[in-house]
Write a structure and sequence with these properties.
Two copies of one chain form a homodimer.
Chain A (H helix, E strand, L loop, with lengths): L22 H17 L6 H8 L4 H6 L3 H26 L3 H8 L2 H14 L3 H28 L9 H21 L5 H15 L9
Chain A binds a DNA duplex (30 and 30 nucleotides) through helix 3.
DNA sequence: ACAATCTCTGAGCAGTTGCTTAGCATCCGT
DNA sequence: ACGGATGCTAAGCAACTGCTCAGAGATTGT
């Protein structure tokens, strides 16, 4: 689809690029993100993004060298923000309850599903996403480990990495099925997990969400 | 990307379509499926499918009215086959062990991830996929329920639907991360789950896979 | 005031896509 | 032998894509 476009060697690296703090640039990023979530990555084309932002298509190429750059920037923005939010929340209260609350926010899950699908055939993007995912996993792993210890569970009973993968998988499948319109069993599962966590952490107010 | 193509009212339904049992048609389906798994759904275009099958692009439209029809047929083929295999395996041995073995085959998971991403912005495809997914879920749910009862677990301890969603989520996240090149914690998690199942079903030979 | 820089745009190239139409060649039942 | 169905193909249309280039306006530093 985007392959086979001949790249002229000259000037590719010397092209003028708009300022990184431009207001227009931000409008383009917002439009791209919205399009990505609403219609999938295939809808994120220079013309459609510009139309959504109420701007001319050439501006996309003025602010982003390639479409891959646009995707990467959209991804980075969200990843950085959610990593920061995660660390803020965990610093305030390092518990399974907090971890679950952050994970159970399905917006983040559908965002990452779309990006994984995209990464599946845009190699330049895959490595960047993988790198962020590893960082996220490491941070979450530390938090899970600490929370489990605080709740009096040893790593023999359930290794932190297992708990984390299980929780991540759960929220991912919930997001995936919700995108398909399936919801059977979701509430029961969520309730079950929340009760299990509440049993481990009785000191916390039950289901304050 | 595919939107906005005007559909002429005349002759759309009267176009000649090749026989459903044609050998050529099957080659096209195989090529499409291979392309889908290797490079993602965006690579599945009439020209690329035909090239992969060593045929002319017009043949795709001779055997399939639209590209959506092609996708649907690819999906149906796989879904029918894996549903049949599931029912065969469960009839022979209705146990958590068998269920896990079938789910842990990641090929199926990456296939369905690609299709969910596709369904996300091809409405005609979404409903079909959702319908199959519901059928699959119902069949699996019955099997999980029976297996749990056979292992002496009541629905109070863990409702079948919860066990099923957890298991599905787990294999899905494993497939997703594997696609990204992430494998940290996967083996530990798989081992943990298999040990837990083995503890519930000691009569079965341990890890015969 | 003037030059340099930055932001933006009109026009366009080369490539891709889904899908159609008209027609050729082959097979098959009668 | 022949008329119809079937498998296949050459040619092409209209729409879309990423991206470039030259230059017009606007802004800014001096």
């Amino acid at each position: 689809m985007w392959q086979g476009v001949p790249v002229p060697i000259t000037s590719t690296s010397s092209r003028r690029i708009g300022a990184a703090d431009s207001k227009t640039r931000e409008r383009l990023l917002n439009a791209a993100e919205q399009l990505l979530l609403e219609e999938g990555y295939a809808a994120v084309t220079s013309r459609r993004v510009a139309a959504k932002a109420g701007l001319k298509p050439q501006l996309v190429h003025y602010y982003f060298r390639t479409m891959d750059d646009l995707f990467l920037e959209v991804y980075r923005r969200r990843a950085d923000e959610s990593l920061a939010r995660f660390e803020r929340a965990i610093a305030a209260d390092c518990s399974l309850h907090t971890l679950w609350r952050l994970n159970a926010d399905l917006r983040g899950a559908s965002f990452s599903i779309e990006f994984v699908a995209l990464a599946n055939h845009r190699k330049a993007i895959r490595s960047e996403i993988a790198a962020y995912a590893e960082r996220f996993r490491a941070a979450q792993l530390a938090a899970v480990g600490a929370a489990l210890v605080a709740d009096g569970l040893s790593a023999d009973q359930i290794p932190p990495v297992v708990a984390l993968v299980l929780m991540t998988g759960l929220t991912q499948v919930l997001a995936l099925e919700k995108a398909l319109g399936m919801t059977a069993g979701h509430e029961a599962t969520i309730e079950y997990v929340e009760r299990a966590i509440a049993r481990l952490e009785p000191q916390r107010a039950p289901s304050q969400r």
